[in-house]
Amino acid sequence: MVIIMLGAPASGKGSVAEILSKEFNIPAISSGDIFRKYISEGTEIGQRANSYMTKGQLVPDDLTVELITSRLKEDDVQNGLILDGFPRTVNQAKVLDEMLTKEGKKIDIVVNLETPEEEILERITNRMICTNSDCKAVYNTVLHPSKVEGICDKCGSPLYQRDDDKLEKAKNRLEVYHRETAPVADYYKETGALYSTVLSKSVNRMKDEVARDVINYLKNK
Ligand code: ADP
Ligand code: ZN
After folding, report:
1. Which of 130, 27, 105, 20 is closest to 71 using CA atoms?
2. DSSP conformation letters of 29-65
3. 84 to each of 34, 54, 167, 204, how far by Cα in Å?
4. pLDDT by residue (tens digit) across 84-142?
5. 219 is catalytic
6. Over 90: is that where the pLDDT of 27 sits?
7. pLDDT at res. 205
C-alpha cells in the first residue's frame, strides 16, 4: 500500500500518518525528519538542505529526490509506506510516479488535509517537538499540550520549537505551500487518487476522525 500525505505545514500530516502507520503496519516516512536527521549528523546533504530550510524555502528537487530515491530502496518499505512531506512540487510528484511505476507499485490514496488558513499559523507557531530523535513526539501548547510544560509525556526529554516554526519563517513556508505544493493536489485530482478531507478544530474534526475515515475508505475500496 502506498499512501501520500498532502497539506499545509502543521496541518496534521505527521499525526494522521502515525495512526495510519500503526493501523496498516507500514512505515511513515517524513522528508523533513530525514533532512533534520542529516543536519544533526552534520552530513554534506544536511548542510546543503539546512541553508534552504532555515529560510523556510523548499530544498531543491534534485537533492530531495536523491534522498527519497535512496530511502525507497530500503527493505522496510517494500510492503508499503506512507510519505509525509513528499512530493511537495508537481515535478517531485512526476518523479515519484516514475519511480513507483518502475517497481510495479501505485499510489492507493493521496490524503489532502484541508485546514483553514487561520488555524494553520496558530498550529505552526504553537508546535513543540521532542528532542529525542527516537521519539520525535509532537505537541501543541494549545491543542494538546504536554502534561509538564516543556517535557515529553512519552520519554521525559525536553521539547523544543523548530526554528522554521517561528512566525516569520512560518509565513514564508505558507506562501511556498500555496505556490508550489497546492498544485500537487490538482495533479492528483487528475489521476483519481486524491482524497481531500477537512481537519479543523472549528468543526471538531481532528486527527483521529480523519484517520478513521481514511481507514474506512481504504478498507472498503
Ligand atoms: P511541515 O511538517 O511543517 O510541513 P516538514 O518537516 O515536512 O515541515 O519540512 C520542513 C522543511 O524541510 C521544509 O520547509 C523544506 O525546507 C524541507 N522539505 C521537506 N520535504 C521537502 C520536499 N519534499 N521538498 C523540498 N523541501 C522539503
Ligand atoms: Zn519524547
Report:
1. 27
2. EEHHHHHHHHHHHT-HHHHHHHHHHTTTPPPPHHHHH
3. 11, 19, 22, 23
4. 999 999 999 999 999 999 999 999 999 999 999 989 999 999 999 999 999 999 999 99
5. no
6. yes
7. 96
- Ligand 2 mean position to 36 CA, how many Å? 16
Ligand having the closest approach to the CA of 151: 2
Instruction: Report the nearest atom of ligand 1 relative to the CA of 8.
Output: 4
Q: Locate 19 and state its grid cell.
A: 495512526
Give yes or no: 88 in active site.
yes
**pTM for the predicted model, two decimal places:** 0.95
d(CA 184, CA 53): 20
C-alpha triplet 169, 30, 170: angle, nearest 5°: 10
Give mean pLDDT, residues 133-158.
95
- 133 alpha carbon to ligand 2 midpoint, in Å? 8
At 24, is the secondary structure helix, strand, or coil?
Answer: helix
Percent of the chain with pLDDT over 70: 100
Q: What is the pLDDT of residues 187-209, one digit of tens each?
A: 999 999 999 999 999 999 999 99
Does the active-site annotation cover 71? no
Q: What is the pLDDT of residue 221?
A: 87
What distance in Å separates the CA atoms of residue 103 and residue 214, rounded to the nearest whole number?
25
What is the atom index within ligand 1 of the atom nearest the CA of 164? 14
Going from the C-alpha of 34 to that of each of 37, 38, 40, 44, 49, the distances in angstroms are: 5, 6, 10, 13, 10
- Catalytic residue, chosen from 36, 123, 173, 207, is 173
Rounded distance from Cα 152 to ligand 2 centre (Å):
5
Which DSSP state fits 157?
P
